[in-house]
Amino acid sequence: MVKKLRSPLIEELDTELSPLDAFELLFEGKHFSFFLDSGMDPGKLGRYSFVGSSPFLVLSSRGSEITLTQGAEKSSLRGNPFDILNNFLGVYHLDSSSPQVPFLGGAVGYFSYDLCHFIERLPGTAVDDLQLPECYFGFYDLVVAFDNLQGRAYIISTGFP
């Protein structure tokens, strides 16, 4: 994969919308939407909130079976999900020197505890009753970031893919 180092476009928005209002207005009900907000005091750990939707790439895995979704196209490969994700993080890397906010777009998702088998040998005793992916990440170009302490909002585009 070829590394694509880019500088994100960051523009301050003139809005009175709260992060929740912005999420509901812009992204609610859209596929792969996310709303990252701690609900904590903005002066402590709740300073920033982030909303977004419509990733340009989705990576999911179950065991060593990895599915990549780009628009309507799906492809599969086998491997260690940590290694594959690390490759994509290298490809879609941003020049983040002096950003106004700590998250500029890119990967949002989760790792399940079942990925422990890629790190150490443990007995496989868990019952897979939910049938969820063990790893699931969307790669987002467009993010709206809120600085809840300063009362500012920014729209950010990575320029990817």
Description:
There is one protein chain. By secondary structure, the chain is mainly β. 12% of the residues lie in helices and 34% in strands. It contains two helices and ten strands, in the order βαβββββαββββ. The strands form two sheets. Strands 1-10-9-3-2 form a five-stranded antiparallel sheet, covered by helices on one side. A five-stranded antiparallel sheet has the order 6-5-4-8-7, covered by helices on one side. The protein starts with 8 loop residues before the first strand and ends with a strand. The model has no long low-confidence stretch (mean pLDDT 91).
What is the average of the pLDDT values? 91
**Oligomeric state of this protein:** single chain
**Overall strand count:** 10
Distance between the termini: 13 Å
